[in-house]
Amino acid sequence: MNKLFRILRHRWLDSRDSRRLIPDDMAHRLSRRITASEARHSGEIRLCVEAALPLSYLWRLGNETSVRVLARERAVSWFGRLGVWDTQDNNGVLIYLLLAERSIELVADRGLSARVDQARWQAMVDRLAGRLHQGAFEDGLTQALEEVSALLVEFFPAQAGGPNPNELPDLVVRA
């Protein structure tokens, strides 16, 4: 029954729910924050809010595959689809929210993930989850962007006077 309930919840939600949670004005403000952040480092940040998993993922539920594993797989899929892996310094980061499961994933490319331990990433996820649980979506996402930005500034600061191309769009993806 639990599997059926999850499938129904995922089928019920769609991109309208992502847009309702992150309306256009909030998405625009978050995009501007990404742009401002990327001026301080050579990394690229993408933010993706997805309402629900596609049915092809849901059929695998319960067959030794947990929702957590599926959410991570989906985040990695978006990481590739959005080209976050394809930055010059391998220092892109995806902040991914899966609304149907209230799941948060941070996916960092190998240039940054090699320098940041899992406990630090998990602490960021926990803080974001706390803010989202309080209903403070914009504040939580802003805090997450600032924390990711701080890591990128620490390990990949922008070079004064050097080139710092914007390799990926700064738009928030709402699916």
TrEMBL record:
A Pfam short name: TPM_phosphatase
InterPro entries (UniProt xref): TPM_dom (IPR007621)
All residue ranges annotated as the TPM domain in the record: 17-150
Superkingdom of origin organism: Bacteria
PANTHER family (UniProt xref): BLL7265 PROTEIN (PTHR30373:SF8), UPF0603 PROTEIN YGCG (PTHR30373)
Name of the protein described by the UniProt record: TPM domain-containing protein
